[in-house]
Amino acid sequence: MDKRRFLHTALASAALPGAALAAPGKIPAAAGPTLLTISGEVAHPNRGRLDPALDQLMSKHGVHFDKARSFTYADLAALPAVELRPTLEYDAKPHALRGPLLSRLLDIAGAGRSARATVGLRALDGYNVELSLAELRRRALIVATHIDGAPLPLGGLGPLWAVFDPAMLPELAARPLPERFAQCPWGLYSVHVVEAAG
Ligand SMILES: Nc1nc2c(c(=O)[nH]1)N[C@H]1C(S)=C(S)[C@@H](COP(=O)(O)O)O[C@H]1N2
Ligand SMILES: [Mo]
Predict the structure, then answer these.
(1) Closest Cα to atom 5, ligand 1: which residue?
(2) 3-class state of residue 134 by DSSP
C-alpha cells in the first residue's frame, strides 16, 4: 500500500469512533439537547465558559459566563413538578401549567446564595426580565414544561415558560389581565445569576 493510500484508510477507519466522541456538549444523545442554562454565580457547574463561536444565541443576547449548569428536558422532567391554574392574558381562559420551581433549579446549580442576588430570565426572542432571588421565591416562579397536560411547543409558549400565578400576588391581581404576565418570559432558555456586591 502506498503512503497516501495507507493514510486514507487509517483516517477512514478512525472516522467512526471519532465522530461518536465528537457529540457537542458531551451530553448523551438520549438525554436530548440542553433547554436551560443557568449561568453566573453557580457553585455546581457542569460546563465551562461561554464559547462566543458556538454559543451563538447567548453570545448575541450579551450573556457572558465562566461556568454554568445546563438542564435537558429529561433533567427537568425528573424533578418534582408544581401545578398552577392561572387565567392567561392571551385567551382569558384558565389553564394548567406544570413544571419544577425555578428556586429548585437554582439550588441544584448552587446559585443565588444571597437573597439579594439578581436573576436575569432570558427568552429566545431576547426578552429579558430581572428579579431579585427573594422576589422570585415569593412569587413561586416555575419553569413550566406543560400546558393542560401537553408539552409546551417551541414556536408557542415553550419549550419552557418562566411563569407564576399573578392571582396569588395582590399587586398583580389588581392589574388588568393584559398586564399581569409582563414578567413571565415564554421561550425561556437562559437564567443568569449575579450575586449582590458587598
Ligand atoms: N419571550 C417573551 N415573553 C414575553 C413577552 C415577549 O415579548 N417575549 N412579552 C411580555 C409582556 S410585556 C406581556 S404583557 C405578556 C404578553 O405579551 P404580548 O402581549 O406582547 O404577547 O408576555 C410577556 N412575556
Ligand atoms: Mo406587556
Answers:
(1) 185
(2) helix
Q: Give the atom of ligand 1 at the shortest distance from the alpha carbon of 125.
A: 1
Our answer on whether the CB atom of 128 is closer than 6 Å to any ligand 1 atom is no
Q: Ligand 1 within 6 A of 158 CB?
A: no
Query: 3-state class of 13 per DSSP?
Result: helix
Residue 94 Cα, ligand 1 centroid: separation in angstroms? Answer: 18
Residue 23, pLDDT above cutoff 50: no
pTM of the model as a whole: 0.86
Q: Which residues contact 114 (CB under 8 A, 6 or more apart)?
A: 133, 195, 196
Residue nearest to atom 10 of ligand 1 (CA): 182
Dig out the grid coordinates for 186 from the structure.
Answer: 415564554
Closest residue by Cα to atom 7, ligand 1, is: 127
Q: Around ion ligand 2, which residues have CB less than 5 A away?
A: 182
Per-residue b or e along 139-174, where b marks 16 or more CB atoms closer than 10 Å to that residue's CB: bebbbbbbbeeeebeeeebbbbbbbbbbeebeebee
Interatomic CA distance for residues 47 and 194, integer angstroms: 18
Q: Is 123 a pocket residue for ligand 1 (Cβ < 6 Å)? A: yes
- Written as nine digits, the cell of 172 is 398583580
User: pLDDT tens for residues 133-166?
Assistant: 999 999 999 999 999 999 999 999 999 999 999 9
**Are the C-beta atoms of 191 and 114 separated by less than 8 Å?**
no
